[in-house]
TrEMBL record:
It comes from Gluconacetobacter tumulisoli. Residues 485-683 form the Peptidase S9 prolyl oligopeptidase catalytic domain. This is S9 family peptidase. Keywords: Hydrolase, Protease, Serine protease. GO terms for cellular component: cytosol. It comes from the Bacteria. Residues 20-409 form the Peptidase S9A N-terminal domain. One of its GO terms (biological process) is proteolysis. The lineage of its organism: Bacteria, Pseudomonadati, Pseudomonadota, Alphaproteobacteria, Acetobacterales. One of its GO terms (molecular function) is serine-type endopeptidase activity.
């Protein structure tokens, strides 16, 4: 048995969770974090494998042969590049012509490391926004330590300098777009107002027009939502034909949105379904996917999951671009200057399609599937609003990352960059299998394993899933897991459980709100199927998830402690009785339900991992990680859970990174450190002799 974590600094209340842990940056809370971190470091870093694991991940993160992720901006290609000399990154540009033939000529525009040193700030670069695809008034987003809140500063792309006397928007969760060279449309924390300007979810709900040189409190209000909304954001869409549409999005809930046009006559609401995802503007029409059945006024019914083109003025009827069949779902969509690039999941296998709008005498949209490999994932990297070009990222569990250039004008695709293998995949293969959940639903899952795997239940296996927010888990290439797990004989399993988007909106709906137990049952069904087939057994099975997947791990830890020997719980939601009042938790009521609704309250209490913890359950020792800078979920969930385990006398390992925000650590050394800790933990629990004895 590993040594118990260090005791709490004071006498905890009856449930073992001291109140000071809720003070995210309070001195007592941070002292507690330091003690838990040190215990974890002392336990895992002393393992002889730690440094080899660390070096393996660092080599991946700092490999100069990585594919630079391209972004179209102001007629050029931009990329944030991080390496051993630039852990925070350099933001650089190249001409399109050299990039697409894989010989980019880079010019640095912003050295984020140098800026951080100069200003003594923990800056993380979060992107840029320009007036139009051809114009250069721009601003960049800089976050402190990786949190969602950011500062915005006007930036001159031609000189690589901040504009003297230009727009500066101080730290806030905020969004801003250019109306013209001297005017921004901004949603942020405006301060001063008695009722405030941020929603209960912690996002802005008041949009104002800010002119150059104007003080923030003098900005003119354009539209406001309600404090009970999730957020209100301005948007500007442009297309290759020169159309420009200024929109304001009001997110009433996480899944329900209302869009309005900003015109010379004021704000005018657009007649659209409330459950949709907006992708762009093409020939003056909106391109969007609908997540509910929709019958537009005077039009024909449109099935949920369809991609459609809509006239924002309502003068012409919507056009259906694509409707998936029962085994398909739309994954990602990008609008170029003259067409649409869409990725589709077909039985959770990636495809890419190009669609072109009606022209001349044609009656409808034409779609062409692009020739790409099978058993892969396809992601849209970025699309150019000036041309028909779009970049696609293609990879598989055993297929190294590739960058492809799609063209909606030529209806073509070609590979322009490819990484060499980043781990030894010789002898590995991928299968797709199906488990049967408690209600009879068939649930697919991928298994990456050695071709000569023996079905005797002894294979160390890591199982992961997400199961929420209509997000799909797909066959991506992960060189870190490849080096630290698969190449060392570990089996890797990705489950496509309900709550995700693998089979469209209905797959998500089946696991939303009070139906969420189906998500947890699906995951447990996959684990039991793996054991039934002889792939693994409880003594050799570990699970990992983060964010909503961290909630999934917490529930599986408490509902089925007998099924696993290792549980990694990352940046998680775990206190479901109080999640609505923590960080941005109120924004997820549409996904999880609310404590203010009696039947939802009862369900949240029943599944809440923190509430479910009890003595004598035989829990395996978990590894819990979070971030102090996480202003989306927040670290308090993980802290409370760990403190409750401490009070119960259950051993655990806890790591709280002081940087990185919710999306993860922000530089290569920190990523290598956290992944190496995980790898040692998994090796000890699942690969070393006699893991059952550790339990």
């Amino acid at each position: 048995m590993l040594a118990a974590p260090p005791a709490l600094a004071d006498s905890p209340p009856a449930d073992g969770v001291p109140a000071f842990l809720s003070d995210v940056s309070g001195p007592d809370a941070l002292a507690w974090v330091r003690r838990q971190n040190q215990h974890t470091f002392d336990t895992l870093q002393d393992d002889s494998r730690y440094h080899a694991f660390y070096d393996a991940v660092l080599a991946v993160e700092q490999d100069r042969h990585r594919i630079p992720k391209p972004t179209f901006l102001a007629g050029r290609i931009y990329n944030l590049w991080q390496d051993d000399q630039h852990p925070r990154g350099i933001w650089r540009e190249s001409d399109v012509s050299s990039f697409v033939v894989a010989t980019p000529r880079w010019t640095t525009r912003l050295d984020v490391d140098a800026l951080a040193r100069l200003e003594h700030r923990d800056w993380v670069f979060q992107g840029a926004e320009c007036l139009t695809p051809d114009d250069r008034p721009c601003f960049v987003r800089l976050s402190e330590g990786g949190e969602d809140a950011a500062s915005l500063r006007e930036f001159d792309l031609s000189t690589g300098r901040f504009v003297p006397g230009g727009f500066v928007l101080p730290r806030s969760k905020q969004s801003a777009v250019w109306l013209d060279r001297d005017t921004l449309l901004v949603a942020r924390d405006w301060g001063g107002a008695a009722e405030g300007s941020m929603t209960e979810s912690g996002y802005p709900f008041i949009v104002r027009r800010l002119r150059r040189g104007q003080e923030l409190d003098k900005a003119e209000e354009v539209m406001r939502g309600r404090r009970t909304d999730v957020a209100v954001d301005p948007m500007v869409l442009t297309d290759g034909a020169g159309h420009r549409l200024v929109l304001i999005r009001r997110a009433v809930t996480f899944f329900e949105e209302q869009y309005s046009r900003l015109t010379a006559q004021g704000v005018q609401k657009i007649d659209l379904p409330t459950r949709l995802e907006l992708h762009g503007l093409l020939r003056g029409r909106l391109v969007l996917s609908v997540n509910q059945d929709w019958t537009p006024a005077g039009g024909k019914p449109i099935p949920a999951g369809s991609l459609v083109s809509v006239d924002p003025t309502g003068a012409a009827p919507p056009q259906i671009i694509f409707t998936p069949n029962a085994r398909q779902s739309i994954d990602e969509v990008a609008v170029t200057g003259d067409g649409v690039v869409m990725t589709v999941l077909d039985t959770v296998r990636g495809q890419a399609w190009v669609f072109r709008p009606p022209t001349g005498g044609t009656q409808g949209w034409t779609g062409t599937r692009l020739p790409l490999p099978d058993m892969i994932s396809v992601h849209v990297v970025d699309a150019d609003r000036r041309s028909g070009r779009a970049f696609l990222s293609v990879s598989g569990f055993l297929t190294p990352s590739q960058l492809w250039l799609a063209d909606t004008t030529a209806v073509s695709v070609r590979k322009i960059m490819e990484l060499p293998p980043q781990f030894d995949a010789a002898g590995l293969t991928v299968d797709q299998s199906w488990a049967v959940s408690t209600d009879g639903t068939r649930v697919p899952y991928f298994v990456v394993h050695r071709k000569d795997m023996r079905l005797d239940g002894t294979n160390p296996t890591l199982l992961t899933a997400y199961g929420g927010f209509q997000v799909s888990s797909v066959p991506d290439y992960n060189p870190e897991f490849g080096r630290l797990w698969m190449a060392r004989g570990g089996v890797y399993v990705v489950a496509n459980i309900r709550g995700g988007g693998e089979f469209g909106p209905a797959w998500h709906e089946a696991g939303r709100g009070v139906h969420r137990q189906r998500v947890f049952d699906d995951f447990a069904a996959v684990a039991r199927d793996l054991e039934k087939r002889g792939v693994t057994s409880a003594a050799r099975l570990g699970i990992r998830g983060r964010s909503n997947g961290g909630l999934l791990m917490g529930v599986e830890f408490t509902q089925h402690p007998e099924l696993w020997s290792a549980v990694i719980i990352g940046v998680p939601l775990l206190d479901m009785e109080h999640y609505e009042t923590m960080a941005a938790g109120a924004s997820w009521v549409g996904e999880y339900g609310s404590m203010n609704v009696p039947d939802q309250r009862a369900f949240l209490q029943r599944i809440s991992p923190l509430r479910a913890l009890h003595a004598g359950a035989g829990y395996p020792e978990p590894f819990i990680f979070t971030s102090t800078r996480d202003d989306r979920v927040g670290p308090v969930h993980a802290r409370r859970f760990a403190a409750r385990l401490q009070a119960l006398g259950v051993p655990f390992l806890y790591y709280e990174d002081t940087e990185g925000g919710h999306s993860g650590t922000v530089n290569a050394p920190e990523i290598a450190h956290e992944r190496a800790l995980e790898a040692v933990y998994l090796s000890r629990r699942l690969m070393d002799a006699g893991p059952a004895a550790i339990r």
